[in-house]
Amino acid sequence: MTAFTAKSTAEQVAKHFSNAINSKSGTITFNWPLPQLALTIATVLVTGVTQGTLGAEVALRISHHQPANLVLAGRSLSALNITKSTIEAANPVSVTLLELDLASQASVRAAARTANSYPFTIDVLINNAGIMAVPYTKTAEGLERQWATNHIGHFLFTNLIMPKLRASRSTARIVNVSSAGHKRSDIRWDDVGFGGGERYDKWAAYGQTKTANMLFSVALAKLGGVESFSCYPGRVRTNLVNSIPLEELVAAGWLHPDGSLVEDPKLKWKTIPEGAATIVAAAFDPELAKANGGYVVDSQLANDEAALYALDEKAAVRLWKLSEKIIGEKFLDA
Ligand SMILES: NC(=O)c1ccc[n+]([C@@H]2O[C@H](COP(=O)([O-])OP(=O)(O)OC[C@H]3O[C@@H](n4cnc5c(N)ncnc54)[C@H](OP(=O)(O)O)[C@@H]3O)[C@@H](O)[C@H]2O)c1
C-alpha cells in the first residue's frame, strides 16, 4: 500500500510512478531497415482534457514523465489545442489530438477508426470525460445525454479500440473515472432512459452513469487481457457544476451565494491537483494489479467504500449485454 492520502497531488503521485509512466510499453514495428524492428514506446490516452478540468491536470502531470505518446481526446479541437500547447511548453513530449464527442456514437466510431490507425499501441486509456446533472435532453441516437456521454460513449470507444489495447506489450490498463455519486443510483435496469424524460431525475441519472463506470471496470477485469479500475477523485471545483444553477448549489450547502466554496470540513473539498492524483494512481500504481476491477479513492484501493451493487460481477455482465443491445453491436464476451 502506498503512503498517499487525500492531500497527495497528481504531481507527487506521477513522480512516484514515474517508471511505470515511461516504461509502460507498447511496440511500434517497422519493416525497414530491418524486418520487424520493434521499438518500445508508451502511449496514454485521456478523454476530457479541457483546461481547468481534472483531465487536463492528469495529462500535464503524466507528460512530465515522458510517455512516448500522449493522446488528448475531446469534443472541441480548440480546447484540445490549448491543453496541447500548455503541455508542449512544459515538456518535450509527443502530443496527438483526437476529436471525440462521446455523446455521439458516430463521432465515437470515427475517433476509434483514427485511434486504430495509429502506428502504436495504446497502453493506458483514461476514460475521464463526463457531464453531471444536466437538464434532460436526448442525443442524436435518442439516448439520455448523461447515459450517452458518461457510459455508452466510453463503453463503445473502449470496445472499438480493444485490439489496440490488447496489443500492448505490457497489460493495458483502462481507468473509468466514477464518483461517490454512484451511491445516488443503481442502474435503472428497466428504465435507463427515465421514460423518455417523463421520470427524469438529473441526479439519479448522473448516479446511474457513475455506477455504470464502476461496473464497466468490473466487466473489463472479468473479460481478461486488460486491467481496469474505477476511481473517485473527490469533491473538486471544476467546470462540472457549470450546468447547475447557483441557487441549487447554495441550497445544497456547497457554494456561497457569491459562488465561493463553503469550507465545511465535512465536504472534504480537494484542489484539482489533489483530485487528479487519484486518477494518476488508478492508471499507474502497479500494486493495484492484484485487485483488477477495483475502486480507488484517495489514491488507494477502496472497494469497501463502494455500494455493493457497483462492484457486482453479475450486474457488470448484465450492463455489458444491455449496453451492446442499446448500441446494436456485440463485442467480446465479458
Ligand atoms: N469535480 C468533481 O468534484 C468530481 C467528483 C467526482 C467525479 N468526477 C468525475 O471526474 C471526471 C472529470 O470531471 P471534471 O470535474 O474534470 O469535470 P469538467 O471540468 O466538467 O471536465 C469534463 C471534461 O469532459 C469533457 N466532456 C464533456 N462532455 C463531453 C463529450 N460529449 N465528449 C467529449 N468530452 C466531453 C469536457 O469537455 P468540454 O470542455 O468540451 O465540455 C471536459 O474536458 C468526470 O467523469 C466526473 O464525473 C468529478
TrEMBL record:
Pfam families recorded: adh_short (PF00106)
SUPFAM superfamilies found in the cross-reference section: NAD(P)-binding Rossmann-fold domains
Segment forming the signal sequence: none
Domain of life per record: Eukaryota
Record's keyword annotation contains Oxidoreductase: yes
Keywords, ordered alphabetically: Oxidoreductase
GO MF term list: oxidoreductase activity
Entry-linked InterPro entries: NAD(P)-bd_dom_sf, SDR_fam
Family: Belongs to the short-chain dehydrogenases/reductases (SDR) family.
Protein name, entry field: Short-chain dehydrogenase
Organism for this UniProt entry: Heterodermia speciosa
